[in-house]
Amino acid sequence: MKKILVTTGGGDCPGLNAVIRGIVKAAKNNGDEYEVWGSIEAFNGVLNEPQRIVRLDEEAVGGIHVKGGTIIRTTNKGNPVDFPTQLADGTWTTVDRSKELIDKIHALGFDAVINIGGDGSQKISQTLFENGLNVIGVPKTIDNDLSATDYTFGFNTAVQITTDSFDKLVTTAESHNRIMIMEVMGRDAGWIALHTAIAGGAEICLIPEIPYNFCDIVERIKSRYEGDTGFVNIVIAEGAKPVDGSVVGEAAKDAGDAHVKLGGIGNVLRAQLENSGIEAQIRTTILGHTQRGGTPIAFDRILASAMGTKAFELVQNKEFGRMVAFKNNDMISVTLTEATEVYNTVSLDHYLIKTARDLGIALGDEGAVC
Ligand code: F6P
Asked: How far is the CA of 171 from the centre of ligand 1 (A)?
């Protein structure tokens, strides 16, 4: 019997469980010569003592494709290359435990690892592969910022959640003649904001890729009011920033967690607008982690299931060092190096940027002077 270890790392994402179920079902239905196991909280289940590794059989994964989160848990503090470690004086540092991890995985008798995670996790996959581990990557992130795949599962669920929220804010904006600012996730890539703005019918959409000119926002707001009557709905990505400003957030507090915690640009914009003499009432809604929770929509369940079964196929064919990818309506694979070399941000010549402009959505680069 051969053994596969599955891990989920980084932020959670609707569809993770459907991938896990896809791997287990494919293993069962293709000869039954593989056992699938899960490491609890990414690689921490292997590295920490006592180890936490669970058997994933058909019973364990029954019906989980409809469930959000991940049944094997996740962490953003489990990078084996930069592993958080407490020193004798109580302070924290990070150490490289990747070799130790590979030895432990081999000692446990695993033939292959399927690492489900975003850009950071797939860079870890590449390092482990270079050091002798048989790894397959499966791309995960609600941000859709991995260029090797047209879509990551979870992204379209996030867009459905943000669009549902946006629709609710439109009716209350209209009733009160208000300006509603809705802040969505998207650290470096504005895909969630752009899709939501188009799906919902926003007047203004601000994304990290286009530092915004404040006067463009004021102009667009003015164009929507006749006297006191009118309303405006703005979508802003958490990673957006003004032309002459910077992103809003705070440094991560935990050792091993590399990311700045973004959030609050919607409130900064509200204050700026209030100070600019705009008379309409302004409210900000920050959707935060609601965008990552709950049931995946059907599209993401299908995408995640197909990615899981494809990952098993790659293991079976011993095509290690590769990541599953959904390209041109087909399930393919690319090398982990290709998978992580280009970050998928919104390019200004993307067709949805043109769509947004044609729909009259201000993107903050119209060049107004005030
Ligand atoms: O990468 C996915 C993501 O949801 C980003 O959009 C967001 O900036 C980040 O994760 C939040 O991370 P955390 O859950 O650690 O606060």
From this structure: 28
